Amino acid sequence: MKRSKTMEFGVGLFMLVGILGLVFLGLRVSGMTLSAPSDTFRVEANFSNIGGLKPRARVTMAGVTVGRVEAIELDPEWYDARVVLRLNSDLEGQLSRDTTAAILTAGLLGEQYIGLSIGGDPDVLEDGDIIRDTQSALVLEELIQQFISNMVSN
Amino acid sequence: MQSNIKYSAARIARLGRKGCDTMESLGRAGIFLAQSAVGVPSREGWSLWLRQMHFVGVLSLAIVLVSGLFIGMVLALQGYTILVDFGAEQALGQMVALSLLRELAPVVAALLFAGRAGSALTAEIGLMKATEQLTSMEMIGVDPLRRVVAPRLWAGFVSLPILTIGFSVVGIWGGYLVGVEWLGVFEGSYWSNMQASVSFINDIGNGIIKSLVFALVVTWIAVFQGYDLVPTSEGISRATTRTVVYSSLAVLGLDFVLTAVMFGGL
Amino acid sequence: MFDNISKTLFFKTLRYACNQCYVCRNKTTMKVIQPMTDVPFIEIEDLYFSRGDHEIFRGINMTIPRGKVTAIMGPSGTGKTTLLKLIGGQLTPDRGRVRIDGQDVHRLSRKALFTLRKRMGMLFQSGALFSDLDVYENVAFPLRVHTNLPDPMVRDLVMLKLQAVGLRGARNLSPAELSGGMARRVALARAVALDPELILYDEPFVGQDPISMGVLVQLIKRLNQALALTSVIVSHDIKETLSIADYLYLIADGQVVAYGTPHTLDANQDPRVSQFIHGEPDGPVPFHYPAETFYRDILGQASAVKAR
């Protein structure tokens, strides 16, 4: 029966390896935090063009990640894109009402993310508020078109 | 002319018969799976399952981990040479992690599993059949599907996902060794780019679902080939080959289907 | 450790095992019950079975009496093992039926069939010991699956069975370490572990050296008497089988050719029977596989060449 004991131990170790591996993948690789869902708040922003922005993209402030894009949908009233952001709750009541949201690109070809820059309004954004001041994504084709038409008119 | 018609008629008949045979054996395999999958809980089932877990899972761990390490390292090396041309070597972590989690870990672990554990399962059950052990078990009044096949099926089903997780972890670590320690990618961007792009549900979860499907298919093929073979030494060697061939094809084919469903927006 | 009931049970099994034990057979005190008339235990009626296009049985009728040793003999390839598998319910006949103790084997539900099989033991030609268990666990296997006996009890029973086949000392060996004869004796111990009413022996004497052959013959005989078993032996070893069988069935070409006691068969004048019983090379069963004549096979080609 001694053989069976070492076998049980081996299989137990094997299962443990699996569980630890899963925990490693969760925490270290996918960057999950154990206390994530509770302390965030929600802000909306409308953009006329979001370019290649995807759900789960980063939201940064001065380069520091402060939240994620939760959902992107078409606003049927204005026919622009309504982007729902989830921000860390430490920022709730800290961001001024005239905070700007811009869609930026990491590097020349990298992924797109949202950068927030703070304004000067004494009023602050609360849960569910809407950011009015937005900058759409730069679309390369439009830039090139503009550049060419400028050249021609010159 | 007439003999020509006769010849092609015979060929069509042969084709039809072959189709019928294939369907028949597929049906047998389905019934077989249904009968053995239900037979898991029993007083002794636990220790039988444990023994098979040891055989199928623990003993496959070494080969799977070593392969994972090398594949992660190669992936980092190849990825780096491509990404550095675009000045995007910070994305190395993301590339290594995503290709491992979504594709390479489930597929390569399943292929290794088919070669290491699947062929051994077929040969073992086949040998038990050839030496009349299965028949004698039946004559003692014990259903060999429950006693012999079910623990192996369940052990395979549980071990392959664990092996796949191990493969991914070791592979990502191997990529870290090559990318960060050797080629000098900034450590922070290796991990943070990875964390920014890997989703637990979409990437890790789907990878595990893939490996569950592969586990079921590979062990099913292995135990069925063992149970259904012609009980001679030639039959055993043929069935072992068939196990590896069929399960490799099934894994690769199913991988395409699953990828299309999970990531291809189908 | 033991309460009273277990104690009596223990001594009962001990005494009973001593009776079946090969060593002290001369001191046996147990009365062997000999039924005056032969009550049929297995009845086979009009059995047809074929494998692919090959007809193996064409209407077999047999009655196997309770408590006797019945041998089924016939040349190789007549499907004797298939017949045992039909009796055990592993194969289903095309037509006809097999009844064991009144129950139609092939009409039973899977569960009832498995219950019936607990009353049968079968000794396979290869022994068919489970290769992942040692000798002790092999013999304990039926007890563990079908009874809830506590471990010490199982141990005692296994020791008694192994003692009966003279292999108590080999209990820790694995099947791979046993010789063919030993493996068959362990398999015999396993077959009688649950004290069945019926034992089917598939070619028990094939490939045995004279000593283990003698041991096996004695064991089968002793077991049958001590346990009042019904035994069915499938074999083509004439001398050994004749020495222990009460009844003989001779099958050839898918049918029963002759039956009776060894004595009446010995005197049977049917050429097929006498060829088999006396082991003559030539007779109704040809030595040669069907072929064209020897002359044409050897010289046919030469003459064809010459003709050209």
Question: Helical segment tally of chain A?
Answer: 2
Largest interface, C-beta closer than 8 angstroms, per-chain residues: A-B, 27 and 33 residues
Specify the structural class of chain A: alpha/beta
The proportion of residues forming helix of chain A, as a percent range, comes to 25-40%
Percent helix of chain B, as a range, is over 70%
Distance between the termini of chain A: 92 Å
Structural class of chain B: mainly alpha
How does the SSE layout of this entry go?
The complex is a heterotrimer of chains A (154), B (266) and C (308).
Chain A: H1 2-29, E1 40-47, E2 58-61, E3 64-75, E4 80-88, E5 100-105, E6 112-117, E7 130-131, E8 134-135, H2 140-153
Parallel strand pairs in A: 1-7, 2-6, 5-8
Antiparallel strand pairs in A: 1-4, 2-3, 3-4, 5-6
Chain B: H1 2-37, H2 45-83, H3 92-130, H4 133-140, H5 144-182, H6 187-197, H7 200-228, H8 233-262
Chain C: H1 4-20, E1 40-51, E2 54-65, E3 69-73, H2 80-87, E4 95-100, E5 103-104, H3 110-117, E6 120-123, H4 135-146, H5 151-164, H6 180-191, E7 198-202, H7 210-227, E8 230-235, H8 238-244, E9 247-252, E10 255-260, H9 262-266, H10 271-278, H11 294-307
Parallel strand pairs in C: 3-8, 3-9, 6-7, 7-8
Antiparallel strand pairs in C: 1-2, 1-4, 4-5, 9-10
Helix pairs in contact in C: 1-5, 4-5, 4-6, 7-8
Protein name (chain B): Intermembrane phospholipid transport system permease protein MlaE
Pfam families (chain B): MlaE
InterPro entries (chain B): ABC_MlaE_roteobac, MlaE_Permease, Permease_MalE
